[in-house]
């Protein structure tokens, strides 16, 4: 395996920042080497520096996409941190059921959904705890820039290790069926989610609605401050004035972001428009 030289690492950092706003710290060379090995074997005889050079200079969008997707941090699991379930069940959905009782519409966006566990967790929570929503028009959009992550999300097919990360046994039996060694979400739950390719730092589809709940979890922490602010300003425009924004459990927002904690004085990652 080749090592990444300083020039190539800088090129890689610039490429990732430009394509997906990923701000790669200087000490992650080993990560890049591990992530790009396979791709380098396929395209540049194992030479990672040549791979980076090729992906960044040649008009080869497919290779560039493959490289950027290989570097993305896709870590996710079902019901990731209980705050999500708790705030959904106790506060957000009950409040929205009341506020939207005339229109009977609810719109939720999992805005960096990775391989889909977050969106399926939301779909399962709604199904189990709010049966009245069966009569509502519920839109649940799950998006990511990464087509390979989205493909997996759309299939809803997970290995046992992934199933064992956060998914209660009862939900496994209720919402999934075994397919060989894997488990696949049943069509009834998969069909509730609409998967879309959206890069948060590129054009968003004109059809993207205003949402009641936006989950923007564990993605902004990889962005520079400027990119965070830019994305949050756009997210604000797609969040209903009485809607909610959910970040990851270790994330928080600056005061200037256009959102305030949903429960005053409570710094859980749970916000409302200011
Ligand atoms: C660490 S995962 C978080 C997944 C899920 N939200 C969670 O909290 O479990 C971060 C996801 O953000 C996606 N991502 C990174 N940059 C992005 C961008 N510019 N636009 C859209 N998605 C992006 C990655 O592909 C990855 O799937």
Largest sheet: 7 strands, mixed
Terminal-residue CA separation: 51 Å
So, CATH architecture of the largest domain?
3-Layer(aba) Sandwich
* CA radius of gyration: 20 Å
- At the fold tier of CATH, the topology name of the largest domain is Rossmann fold
**CATH C-level of the largest domain:** Alpha Beta
The hetero compounds bound to this protein are: S-adenosylmethionine
Task: Count up the domains.
Answer: 2
**Unreliable segments of 5+ consecutive residues:** none
Overall 3D form: globular
Total E-strand runs: 10
Count of alpha and pi helical runs = 11
The CATH homologous superfamily of the largest domain is called Vaccinia Virus protein VP39
Order of helices and strands: HHHHHEHEHEHHEEHEEHEEE
User: Approximately what portion of the residues adopt beta-strand conformation?
Assistant: 15-25%
Helical amount among residues, as a percent range? Answer: 40-55%
Mean pLDDT: 94
What's the arrangement of strands in the largest beta sheet?
6-2-1-7-8-10-9
Sheet/helix structural class:
alpha/beta
GO biological process, one term: methylation
GO molecular function: methyltransferase activity
Keywords: Methyltransferase, Transferase
InterPro entries: Bact_Chemotaxis_MeTrfase (IPR050903), CheR_C (IPR022642), CheR_MeTrfase (IPR000780), SAM-dependent_MTases_sf (IPR029063)
């Amino acid at each position: 395996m080749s090592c990444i030289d300083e020039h190539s690492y800088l090129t890689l950092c610039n490429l990732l920042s430009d394509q997906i706003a990923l701000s790669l710290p200087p000490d992650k060379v080993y990560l890049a080497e591990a992530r790009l090995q396979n791709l380098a074997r396929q395209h540049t005889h194992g030479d990672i520096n040549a791979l980076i050079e090729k992906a960044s200079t040649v008009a080869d969008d497919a290779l560039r996409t493959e490289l950027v997707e290989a570097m993305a941090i896709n870590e996710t699991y079902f019901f990731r941190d209980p705050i999500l379930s708790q705030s959904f069940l106790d506060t957000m959905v009950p409040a929205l059921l009341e506020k939207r009782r005339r229109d009977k519409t609810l719109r939720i966006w999992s805005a960096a959904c990775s391989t889909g566990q977050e969106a399926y967790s939301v779909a399962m929570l709604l199904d189990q705890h709010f049966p009245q929503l069966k009569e509502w028009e519920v839109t649940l959009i799950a998006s990511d820039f990464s087509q390979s992550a989205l493909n997996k999300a759309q299939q809803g097919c997970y290995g046992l290790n992934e199933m064992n990360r956060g998914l209660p046994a009862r939900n496994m039996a209720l919402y999934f069926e075994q397919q060989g060694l894997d488990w696949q979400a049943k069509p009834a739950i998969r069909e509730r989610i609409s998967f879309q390719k959206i890069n948060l730092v590129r054009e968003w589809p004109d059809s993207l609605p205003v949402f009641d709940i936006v989950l923007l979890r564990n993605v902004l922490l990889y962005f520079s401050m400027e990119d965070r602010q830019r994305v949050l300003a756009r997210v604000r425009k797609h969040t209903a004035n009485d809607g909610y924004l959910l970040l990851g459990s270790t994330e928080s927002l600056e005061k200037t972001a256009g959102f305030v904690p949903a429960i005053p004085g409570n710094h859980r990652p749970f916000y409302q428009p200011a």
